[in-house]
Amino acid sequence: MSRIEDVAKKAGVSIATVSRVINNSGNVSEKTKMKVWKAIKELNYKPKILASALARHKEKFYVGICKSNRLIKMEKEKTSPEFYSVILEALEEVGKTYGIKFEKMDIQKPEKCDGYILVGGDSTKEIINFYRELEKPFLLLDHYIPGEKIDCIVTNGYDGAYFVTNYLIKKGFKKIYHIHGPLYSYGFKSRFEGYRNAMEDANLIPRFFEYDDVNDNMSEVINSIDIPEAIFASNDITAMRIIRELRKRNIRVPEDVSVIGFDDILSAKDFDPPLTTLKVFKDEMGSLAAKRIYELLVGHDVHPILISLFTKFIKRKSSI
Amino acid sequence: MSRIEDVAKKAGVSIATVSRVINNSGNVSEKTKMKVWKAIKELNYKPKILASALARHKEKFYVGICKSNRLIKMEKEKTSPEFYSVILEALEEVGKTYGIKFEKMDIQKPEKCDGYILVGGDSTKEIINFYRELEKPFLLLDHYIPGEKIDCIVTNGYDGAYFVTNYLIKKGFKKIYHIHGPLYSYGFKSRFEGYRNAMEDANLIPRFFEYDDVNDNMSEVINSIDIPEAIFASNDITAMRIIRELRKRNIRVPEDVSVIGFDDILSAKDFDPPLTTLKVFKDEMGSLAAKRIYELLVGHDVHPILISLFTKFIKRKSSI
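Output (structure tokens, whole complex):
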């Protein structure tokens, strides 16, 4: 059976280079990779990626969980407590299986760690640059900043919004509003774009309205729009407020207007009427984050990627 | 040391459910997962994800590589031969380390396999539905169809386009054109959106022009536009044709107009002038595809995801 040394010799490169090619960890030119793969093929060498990963598995890693300021504020105000707690529970539990111990810390003053996970949708470029300078692996959990090329794990809001807008179009609706949160948040922006593209692809006019659930008044929003056939809200909280305001005006949901939310928070199921929505897979996000930071820690497949989880459409009674 | 049986008993669920929670494979409610994790924590049970993956690693999987019709046509015409061959070389070599044997087959009439990889940017919803009915794991390589929730591996065209448009804006340019391929292709569409959003975010007017490199004439395109300060083309081939047409008109690149491509094909480096572009990480795509189909085959982290690889900006002489 061939050994890694034979491959290195045949390809005319170092053992370290062969290892980098096998583990996809570091700068190796395509030409060199091709040479290494050719040698691997000719010698019928069988590298064991998982075996080496398992060997390293005994190592203990120490990773900081750094919550964004907005998230800490939200937790204090209990506006969205179950969302991130589910993600972080999964992260910590699955992390253990990879030999990772997590510790919560201040995003502005992190302790020395092997790596970091920045949690929440409002980390800025300044924070990113600060973490870049620490020269340790890190990733964004539930956030993405275009053009920064940082590993991140997000929900595919674009896809879910595109899907559900098409669903409403197929029901025969033409006048479909989108009421969305502030577009500086990647989550809201991607849902907005999924809605807009689905409408444009169907030659329908996108009609949208920004609503900040912290500062704005839903009654004013509803007063200012023509009541449409359907409303897709960019989160469940907003959808619930829309339904309450419509009812005050004796507009029936879903008989007169179909209303759909996003997130599938725990209270969506028990709302009256139960809310049609797109389920966000919170614990899968945590689990993928644990796996991804582990890969970055051991230097496997380190080229930066965005991992985006598809949502699931949950049909309940707030829409026809 | 605790065993999986103890966890199952304490959580009041079956061993199979505990296993599904640990491996993230299958439908388990969040509530049940929480119970299982709580039991794992209290019993200090240490599951070995990687160990079980390694055990299964001895299995031989047989996976079909199904090239799209457009890709097969391109290969015959040798319009883009080195691009997909690099991806597939990496896929096959890394696949071996996971115990996967790949076989190329007709996308319309695939043989019986454990799973399938559909390669290329033009697989339709009809093809997707056909593969769905086979009830075997499959993924799209270099393609994504919004709203279909299929596992896929793509290049992050949005991110690269957003980055490079900002780069040109920071250079002081205001009149920046985007000449793009047909927008039914996800690759071109996402680059287009990255360009458009970057321009809009900087309060600049997006100016774009569709150019199909198979059917259109670049001379006519250049005749029909006001010559701008910079042109961002949605692939390298298009950028090269733009540069040739500008030169025929005695317009200098980069002195009069900066031109930037996308892909970093082999000939980009040796073009005159050498082409500034965004590098697509072809072998990393192949490697990630091998890993992802393996995960789907063994039932680990099966919730469908989109994996999107960030590009790298390569500054050469076709732009200032």
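Chain B has a mean pLDDT of 88.
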